């Protein structure tokens, strides 16, 4: 397969929340309207409601987010202003996974964390393949941010979404997996909680950001810091479970791993998620003690169970609105505060280093 030299756009923002959002929106004026146009088309198929109904449903989430994370609502308002698009449309996409009529399609994502005593150079590494609807494949970009109220951070997003995967200047990194609990409701959108992790100055603050009160649902958050503290936090709307990486490494995909959270999981086989989870564990365990940036790149390009592999590709048998692929592949060196990123699928591109 041919490898391209395509790199991701990177946007620099600074200042208070609204101003940062405005700068993001202005710089992403190509990606944001394009994403909104595509979601208007696919909404009836993927969310089983009209775009207008989705906007009405998303309004219900707003008071909860404004109460808990007002700074990120302001950031979203700025994104809309900068891109010159309606706030309600931008807000709706930031609530997308929590909309009540959303189909329970199991989207991918593979997350890996490795402690310093398991890597070849003594660095803490966090890796993530962002698998999502391929309508967003041209809408991915990176943001390097300098907030006035929180640590600088570097992360990825697409379209009008908040940055919710990345690392900050305190050496804290976050990757996320969509999970599918039965207790979803109206509350703080999960993407807003994940954005909060990037403002954390300690690993305990990062954990607390994952589990605000009155949340609408949850992700599994894979957290790591430059000290080698590794956790995953499996969350739902009403409960959560925290697991520590005692052996110096963690892997997570899109099904719950803890018995407490499995009891809340939507019925389903989650076959693709289980295959990616076991495959990633096997490949990682073979490298323990000698893990490198390059060996993680090879792991994230793995094609066992193609096209629903760790390096995910569109399945031509699926309807266009249901096709999934790896949009971007990330490896974070939390020791050096460097993010390596490859436009997806990563087998078709090269990783580029971006420094915070």
Mind sketching the topology for me?
Layout: E1 10-15, H1 17-27, H2 31-46, H3 51-59, H4 62-68, H5 70-83, H6 87-94, E2 110-114, E3 125-133, E4 140-147, E5 153-158, E6 165-168, E7 172-178, H7 190-197, H8 203-210, E8 219-225, E9 230-235, E10 240-244, E11 249-252, H9 259-262, H10 271-285, H11 293-300, E12 324-333, E13 338-343, E14 352-355
Parallel strand pairs: 1-4
Antiparallel strand pairs: 2-3, 2-11, 3-12, 4-5, 5-6, 6-7, 7-8, 8-9, 9-10, 12-13, 13-14
How does this model look, in words?
The chain is an alpha+beta fold and 356 residues long. 30% of the residues lie in helices and 24% in strands. The protein has 11 helices and 14 strands. A hairpin with a 5-residue loop joins β4 (140-147) and β5 (153-158). α4 crosses α5 (70-83), α5 (70-83) crosses α6 (87-94) and α7 (190-197) runs antiparallel to α8 (203-210).
Strand order of the largest sheet: 1-4-5-6-7-8-9-10
CATH class wording of the largest domain: Alpha Beta
| Fraction of residues in β-strands | 15-25%
> Considering DSSP H and I runs of 4 or more, what fraction of the residues is helical?
25-40%
Unreliable residue runs: none
Kindly provide the radius of gyration, computed on alpha-carbon positions and rounded to a whole number of angstroms. 18 Å
Oligomeric state of shown chains = single chain
Measured distance between first and last alpha carbons = 32 Å
